[in-house]
Amino acid sequence: MNFFPKFIFPHFSRHFATLSKLPNNFTKIPSKYRPQAIRDAQQALTDYLHSTRYIPFIYAEHIAKNSFFSLSSLISGINFSTTSFNRNVLRFLRYHPINEYEFFFESIGIDYEEVGGLLPSKKFFFSEDETVLEAACALSGFGFPWNKLGKLYKEEILIFKASSKELKARLVKIKECGFSNISVIGICLAFPYVLRGGGVNELGGEIVALLNDLKRVFLDFDLGNHVEDNVDAWYEICRKIRVFYDLGCEKGKIGELIGRKKDLFLQYPEEVLVSKIEYFSRFLVPKEDIGMLILRNPEILDSDLETPMISVMGMLKHFGLSVKKRDSIAKEYPYVLGRNKMTNLPNVMRALNLHEWLFNRIKNGNHRLLANYTLNDDEDLDKGFRDSFDKIQFSRTPVHTMEKLIFLHRVGFGENSLTMKVLDHVHGTGSELQERFDSLLGLGFEFSKLCRIVHMTPKVLNQRPKTVEQKVNFLRHEMGVSLDYLDIFPAFLCFNLEKRIKPRYRFHKWLTENGLCTRNYSIASIVATGEKSFIARLGRIHPDALNKWFENFSYKESDNSSQD
């Protein structure tokens, strides 16, 4: 592939992997001529924008060389010729003006599929409103990479409504803090709002607080001298710093701490930082606490929190939970006990309703306990689980069954025989079960209580989310009962809403309102009683109750099954 021009190859390696996005006519150009077609079209577009539309040559070239999909769409309607394609494109442009904003937005790094939503409704040419282009030219003139300006536009569109004079003044103001051009660019790409400013010659209070932190970090603690002198390196280091502000750490307050822990930002990739934040976020604790935990204890990023196996009871003992509380846990949550993976620890603790307790232990000086925890070879092995697990390998659907088991472990169920009993009664793929579980959480179920419900009534997870939502809404709004009632009667969610729950409840309500039934039957008694016993009960309540039931309330189709 040495025949690819240097500026063409990145486009082809990135874009031809997704040919489905390209216009059909363009893909008809023989593959060996596509680099030439793009090169000729880029040159023609550059000449057009510069000579006809009076855009400075360097910016016209930036637009032409960084708008691959827009350009491909343009030339798809032009017959290709190996000898005259450049002239053909120029001739086409003279009579078919392009939407300059479309090419511009793609060229500054905005995904082509998003460009359509950003185009001005009644503007086609930069001459109709030069503000956006002038802002981009001012930023590029300072040193911003043209194809990264889209990051600024998407996050702070007001930057592109400022005059070039205002932008230059803001950039100078930031630079006066002691930063170089390259460091200013890295800071602005990671924190676009610093260019929003408070006016031509002033910066807002939030921006000043941030810049004070960054001065402390890069200048006072000398982190700047450890960063390579290029935009990408500065942007990367600033992105890592931004992670902590996005977690809620206060601007102007953590500069010294970041400076003292600068190795965190030099040694660890952003992906490692983000993965650990995602891990601790699953404890459902304040995000700022997670940020401060990692800032104060960066060595936690070295810990393997994914692959090690743990004993649930062993981990509780390791972190100092008392014998009395561990005994209580064993009685109340037996389905959570046994072994599990470290990656599932946050949900294991949520299933035990101990997630805040454990995170606080970690946060308050015990973070090393995560790293030095070890599991003995024969610790907490459950023979019943192991026997059932071995049978899975020889079943008709071992992969499908394992996906379901992995789901149960992921939400906090341990390696024990109770988990295997639940496994026998839940149906669907692992992803379907996760979707149903998440939908129940979205309806307001507490994580710990939902795990208990699944343990008691696994078939709750065998229904479509919409079906369960309708039952929950009926329970809450028409029956006037909170979700807490399902702690007592989780099987409510397994009965048919239209055939069983609605008609029976409404009939009992009618009986009570009309003084025909003085006994206060529970919801469980109303819904769960078998059909024959229910009919017999109606006959005892009132002689005319049966006729009323069959004429006005009962579901008309045969009700052979009470379950969905």
UniProtKB/TrEMBL annotation:
One of its GO terms (biological process) is DNA-templated transcription termination. Gene3D superfamilies: Transcription termination factor 3, mitochondrial (1.25.70.10). Pfam families: mTERF (PF02536). InterPro entries: MTERF, MTERF_sf. The keyword Ribosomal protein does not apply. Transmembrane segments: none annotated. Keywords: Transcription, Transcription regulation, Transcription termination, Transit peptide. GO terms for molecular function: nucleic acid binding. Belongs to the mTERF family. This is Transcription termination factor MTEF18, mitochondrial.
